[in-house]
Amino acid sequence: MYKVPIGVYNFHKLTTCDYLFCDKTRMIAEFLSKGDEVTLITRPRRWGKTLNMSMLQHFLASEVNGISTAGLFDDLAIGKLEGSKYLQTHQGKYPVIMLSFKDVKANNFEGAYNAIYELIRSVYDLFHYLLKSDTLTELQLEKLNSILRKKSDQQQLEASLKLLSECLHKHHGQRVYVFIDEYDTPLNHAYVNKDYLASLVNFMRNLFSTGLNNNDYLERGLLTGILRVSKDSMLSGLNNLETYTMLDEAYSEHFGFNEGELEALC
């Protein structure tokens, strides 16, 4: 008897702990075959956005939270596609930065800024081995430590995704994937406060622009959210962005369930 995965968003846990599971791994092939440098996929709540992000993270990274991803996809659809081409070429080959803004729900800019700072610190801590890397310069190590010790100013924090990408690229010799889940959650909670909204939009515009646009160390970027925010605001710095909504055929089969999948699950 399979368990129903209510609130399970970790791909490794879902596929290894006897949960009821619908194989959506063909999305990986579609994502890798497209030429978008930065992709935004919008879907309603509870349509599998976070789980699909976790799936991509587990496929591309060699380990997630200290757990190896080797063999995780061997018996899934992506592992058998085109003679295991995607598995052999891409699985476990890249450094991956993954962060989710789902819990950034503050009532003012200071609260949102501090929450995002803590989120970025927690992501930096996952790559603490960089502090002992002999490939990084003293200046790079100093900047990493400044973020971790919460001594960086706003401008330095806005450049934090690019800095981490640079250090990972230099250490691993591979360009970096950056995944941002629920990118629009902080904006949704700031919408009723115009002063707070303007400050947050400016901060996040700079964070996204330096991390996803002017970043020579970026392989691909992916954002998910509920809203397609106007390019005149928070995403205005991303002139390399391709957006896919529910009205687009691309990626449509990988979110939610179709009738055949429902019948199989039942």
Plain-language structure description:
The chain is built from twelve helices and seven strands. With 266 residues, it is of the alpha/beta class. The chain has one domain (11-265). The strands form two sheets. It has a five-stranded parallel β-sheet with strand order 4-5-6-1-7, sandwiched between helices. Helix 7 (138-148) packs across helix 9 (160-172) and helix 9 (160-172) runs parallel beside helix 11. The two termini are 12 Å apart.
Topology, element by element:
Layout: H1 11-16, H2 26-33, E1 38-42, H3 49-60, E2 63-64, E3 67-68, H4 77-80, H5 85-90, E4 96-100, H6 109-126, H7 138-148, H8 154-158, H9 160-172, E5 176-181, H10 185-190, H11 194-212, E6 218-225, E7 241-244, H12 259-265
Parallel strand pairs: 1-6, 1-7, 4-5, 5-6
Antiparallel strand pairs: 2-3
> How many beta-strand elements?
7
Q: Can you give the mean pLDDT? A: 87
Overall helicity: 40-55%
* Count of distinct structural domains: 1
Key terms:
alpha/beta, 12 helices, single chain
Quick structural gist:
With 266 residues, the chain is of the alpha/beta class. It has helices at residues 11-16, 26-33, 49-60, 77-80, 85-90, 109-126, 138-148, 154-158, 160-172, 185-190, 194-212, 259-265, and strands at residues 38-42, 63-64, 67-68, 96-100, 176-181, 218-225, 241-244. It has one domain.
